[in-house]
Amino acid sequence: MRQTLLTILTVFLFTSANAQSVDVSGNVQDNTGFPIPGVNVLVKNTTNGAVTDFDGNFTVSGVDIGSVLIFSYIGYVSKEVIVNDSTSLVIKLDEDLAQLDEVIVVGYGTQKKSNVVGSVVSVDLEEATATPTTNVSEMLRGRAAGVQVNLADARPGGDSNIVIRGSVSVAPNGNGPLIIVDGLPFDSLNDIAPDDIANIEVLKDASSTAIYGSRASNGVILVTTKRGKAGKILVNYHGYTTVQSLTKNFNQYTGQQYIDLKREANRNRFTGEYLRDENIFTPFELEAIDNKEFVDWEDLVLSDATIQSHALSVTAGSEKTKVFSSINYFTQDGIIPNSGFNRGAFKLNLDQQISNKLNLKAIINYQNTNQDRETGGLNFTTITPLARPFDENGKLLKFYLGPNNTSVNPLWDQQESTDETKINLTDLNLSLTYNFTPNLSYTLKTFLRNRNTNRGIYRSLSHSSGDEGVDGRAFLENRLYRQSLIENIINYKPEINDKHSLDFTAVHAFDEQRDEFTQIQKAGFANDALGFNGIGTKLLSDVRNVSQRRLVSFLGRLRYGYLDKYLFEVTARADGASVFAENNKWGYFPAASFAWKIHKESFLENLESINELKLRISYGATGNQGINSLESLGRADDTPYIFGGETVAGFVASSRLPNPNLKWETTTTFNTGLDFRLFNNLFEGTIEYYKSNTKDLLLDRSIAGTTGFAVTRFNVGEIENKGFEVTLNTNIIRKNDLRWSVGLAISSNNNKVIALTGETDNEGNPVDIPLGDGRRLSIGQSINNIWLPKYDGIFQEGDDIAGSGTPLASPGDIRVIDQDGNGQIDERDNVFTEADPDWYGSINTTLNYKGFELFADFYILEGATKLNPVLADGELWKGAINGVRTKYYTPESPSTQYPRPKPDTHVHLFSFAVRDASYVRLRTLTLGYNLPEKTLSGIGFNSAKVYMTGTNLFTFTDYQSYSPEQNPIENGNSAFPETRALTVGVKLGF
């Protein structure tokens, strides 16, 4: 009995000792002894914990001896410490080198981010993919300083223009960046499924882009897609549904407002009396006025539309075989009838180790897309509301302005026509890498792309074109594009010692692109049943064009590092392009750069507030071959002629004079940047300055008709771009359950013409080169500036009109400035107006609380100017068409901003229509929730996230259009409006 009691007492005392609780305090430091504030200290498997104060101190109460404390902080490796009877701890955290030395993709290889010498920026993929779109270009908007994205086409399947660090060329297609996906050139970012992307890098300066030589004068966008990993099979699904709705910054005139506008325009300007309605409106319009039959064309044409996206991927692999494969399906209805887009895509990435020395990489991409476009002639922005589009039975009427008016209802032609484009894209890439030694390798890379595009347009027998007696009309286009690429790559990385590092890359490449285009136009269809697939009895035209371009390249790059503190890089590339003249086919593009890791110097080693400080300087050249194939050669145009009463094929010399001396356009760039991480990685960012000069511009120049030609392409002039870029990210709160970060990217660019032809006028001034549309190349001005008289408001009663440059004007007319004071307005009074923005950028913030995630992104463009073609249309101010509604001038309410409607055309409307296009937009707002691990384990998922996203929710701008980047009218028709989108989605991992 005594023995039993002794045993029980011993166990009790032992248990009590092990259950003893203590208060643990201490200090958390980095390897240099500097205290780290904000470190999370948590008792493992409990909610008991603390956060270190500004001096790195902490106290955790009630900790059982034997428990484990976890110390975690962003940028440092987490550490676990067992609690013993010691209640005062000093904890050292190591920097997370895997995070700080992130490997990023650069030209023909990878590199540690800390060792990058050129201007390279990584795009945050989570932020980029928060925007649900098939237009991958839009995913880059505001994500990288110096990268400006401008909406080109808002319709389903549309695209955007990307400009990196300003316009460097006036050549056709001369400002688009080079797009490289998995080391292979791509025509468009839209050829990539967003869910397949692993990371995106943007190369901006000559040091980083020179290795791509002639193709990289406008920067390079590097995209890496996901690849297989060794381990268990992972299956991921991402699906979402989006509802699109109209967003705009203007209103049109309603029916009654349009009537008032037309009455005002026909008002007697001398007596102030209104004309009788019978003298203003047609009988059809008078009937509509009496019956108050007004048409809201926007409401009639536009309707909410949906997007559906589904992406399924599989990742699997062993030590020797790794596979990533995905299937993506995307479909989008347009908010305009007859418009839509759908895409199905398949991708396979294979990594196979054949032997200890030989490795194979294979990529297969297949896409099938179908785009339906609203057919031409749809103008719902300026069309009159005094119309009757339907009869009493709701049936569409062909003549919407009455039976005596031959104007065709635009909805009628939409109903009686189709415009469909189908694209089949196949990519095949095989790469073999042989490792002679661990430090020396050779890679053979092959790439074949086939893109087959078929477009069919059909206008039925009832279409307005049928009034020409052609009995239906069809346009059939087929374009076969083929690209072949072969690259031989040698990489050598000798191991010297701890002080020196060396990396050498050499490449030989051959790139061939062939484009075959066929178009036929036929008519005379018996019926509309088969559309453009039917048999037409009349062949109206037949066009066939074939072009080819080839590029041969030799390049080398040498990287050298000393003490992991001083980094040097030299690149040289030679390109031979078939598009240039015989004696100027080759271009040579060298670059050199240097980086200094200042934070590793002895005078900064003890400065705890600086975690990283790196200075970068680079200078180099790139080229541009952005001209059409065979443009340097003489060509003949097909000109049939009549001989003996019959049409006989014939050819005459083209109106373009060949230039046998045409050569490369070359851009040289100086870049300096400072990368930093401060205060235990609380702040990190980059400040950069660049200056690039483009010489030997590829320009079209008009020549005297006496030569027998009209225009020639030649090299002349110089353009300069220079600017600043700032990127800053800060992690304000860094706790386990609560994290808050804010980031911004701001860019400014100044574009200026430095030199032109060298010709001068009679007064010795340099001769400008007209570009049309109110633009011209002029020394000292941006290539995008607008050249018109300066708008100066609206004439008011009592103004000195007689002493102005427009003495015949009346109150309510547009006033411009007589720059030379000679009493008349002519070309000598034109001035340049800055069109480029003063700066642009984005501000984003991410807030994480437990499983919840909130992301907001604002995009800002300040100081931009555009010419609004609707405001510049004289027919609007005559009351002949509808358009942007304004508080126009009347004698009773004299506006100082908008002119008076009148029956004759206002002068200087284009000057008046030059408007500020600055804006601030809530680009993205996303709220997501990640299911906790306990819930996931119960349902067999690895991950699960649900989210809601709003896109283009609010836009603050004075520019009156569907979007500040769009004009209301484009090419005579209403622009396809940009939309506001609300998305609900789910991401699942198995």
Number of strands: 53
Relative strand content: over 45%
Looking at the structure, what is the overall shape? globular
Helix content: under 10%
Low-confidence stretches: 4-18
Radius of gyration: 34 Å
| Structural class category | mainly beta
The major β-sheet equals: 22 strands, antiparallel, barrel
Mean pLDDT: 87
**What separation lies between the terminal Cα atoms?**
59 Å
Assembly state of the chains shown: single chain
Brief synopsis:
It is a multi-pass membrane protein. By secondary structure, this protein is mainly beta.
Task: Describe the protein's architecture and organization.
The chain is mainly beta. It has 11 helices and 53 strands. It has a 22-stranded antiparallel beta barrel. Strands 10-15-16-13-14 form a 5-stranded mixed sheet. A hairpin with a 2-residue loop joins strand 22 (417-437) and strand 23 (440-459). It is a multi-pass membrane protein. Keywords: Cell outer membrane, Membrane, Receptor, Signal, Transmembrane, Transmembrane beta strand, Transport. It holds the Pfam family CarbopepD_reg_2.
Topology:
Blueprint: H1 2-18, E1 21-29, E2 40-43, E3 49-51, E4 57-64, E5 68-72, E6 79-82, E7 88-92, H2 97-100, E8 103-106, E9 109-112, E10 120-123, H3 125-128, E11 147-151, E12 160-164, E13 178-181, E14 184-186, E15 197-203, H4 206-209, E16 220-225, E17 231-246, H5 255-265, H6 283-291, H7 297-301, E18 305-317, E19 321-333, E20 340-353, E21 358-372, H8 410-415, E22 417-437, E23 440-459, E24 473-492, E25 500-523, E26 538-562, E27 566-577, E28 586-597, E29 610-624, E30 636-638, E31 641-643, E32 646-648, E33 651-653, E34 656-657, E35 665-678, E36 683-702, E37 711-734, E38 738-755, E39 769-772, E40 775-777, E41 786-789, E42 791-794, E43 814-816, E44 830-833, E45 839-849, E46 852-862, E47 865-867, H9 874-877, H10 909-912, E48 914-916, E49 919-930, H11 933-939, E50 943-957, E51 969-970, E52 973-974, E53 979-989
Parallel strand pairs: 1-7, 13-16, 34-37
Antiparallel strand pairs: 1-4, 2-3, 2-5, 5-6, 8-9, 10-15, 11-12, 13-14, 15-16, 17-18, 17-53, 18-19, 19-20, 20-21, 21-22, 22-23, 23-24, 24-25, 25-26, 26-27, 27-28, 28-29, 29-35, 30-33, 31-32, 35-36, 36-37, 37-38, 38-45, 39-40, 41-44, 42-43, 45-46, 46-49, 47-48, 49-50, 50-53, 51-52
Family: Belongs to the TonB-dependent receptor family.
Organism: Hyunsoonleella aestuarii
Signal peptide: 1-19
